[in-house]
User: Fold this.
Amino acid sequence: MSDRRTVPKSLDAGSTDAVGFEVYPFKKLPSGKYDLNQWNDEYWTRFVNLLKWSQEREIIVQIEVWDRFDYTDHRGFDAWRMHPYNPANNVNYNSADTGFATEYVKQHPSRDQQPFFHTIPGMKKYQQPYDVVRKYQERFVDKLLSCSLPYGNVLYCMNNETSTSPTWGQFWIDHIQHRADERGVDVYTTDMFDHGFKPESSEKIRIALNKPRQYSFMDISQVNSRNFNEDHWDKLLWYDREIRQHSRPLNNTKIYGSGETSWGSGTPEDGVERFWRNIIAGCASARFHRDGAGNGLKPIAKASIGAVRKVESLVKLWDISHRNDLLLDRASDEAYLACQPGGSYVLYFTDGGNIGLDLKAYPQEFGLHWINIANGRWGAKRTMTGGKVLPISAPEKGPWVAVLVSAK
Assistant:
């Protein structure tokens, strides 16, 4: 998917008008206020172009329908102060009509103080005046779906990094699925919970795992923050085990690794390691997060993407599964293996290393192809014979991937 800042406002996180190229979905009147009953054609043209051009290139787009950062004033971003849903900025309602304030204390949106995300009856913070706003929320989502449902390359994630009750996201999941049923099309829906980085103790992750109809794929992006090295791998395997009862894709639309933030984004090298562990673990998608919190499309990211495309030219990733049990003399976080035993093997070294690969049951010859992850280029190629524990050493320090393909 393209860098997330190219996605229209309210369909993706972290965007503000201050950047200079985003637009709102609603029509701005000469008075400077917005009319929530009229659309901004520029916004929707951009959105349809995104879907159309992505489909032509066989790119899957994951929409984040709501993003809490678009409705908050925090850390210098006055997103709510400028937003059309703010009662001060539209001609459709005021604070007395809705109970919505024109400004809120500038605290991180994870505190979940914005009533915009509590407009659903039955939620603890719901108030009846919020129905006025929900009417416009529903109208926006229906307009979105009128554009997106004709395209088969779209996934629907309800929120970006939400800490709100699952009731909020489930309302929109049901709404989207109902509209899709009316059109006779299938849709894939999910939510992205803050606590995806510690799934074992997250009640919301457990809810998602137990509701495969609503959460038809899992966005586990947050596992790619705060977790490092073997611990990151263990979390991926936890997800892999837990979805087996109701199998579905594990998606990573955000892999952190840049900036070394206090909350655990890690270094650019951490981002590369997380990217490759996602792939070896069998995740359905692996994507670097934007610059600042991830590697974006910097050279280090392009090199990894180029390297994995070379892997794909030799092995179909859906034909292999993680099998670290076939590695001998492996140190923690040294190497990771996915394979189709006797057929193809993809062996990822985080920073050089030496391991043994158990090929005792397969005495045939294998072609060994090295790929340098640091620059995305092919390395050496040679033939090796199985029927034993095959010692494999990375050509040098740094990240490498070895692909072994049976000659049979």
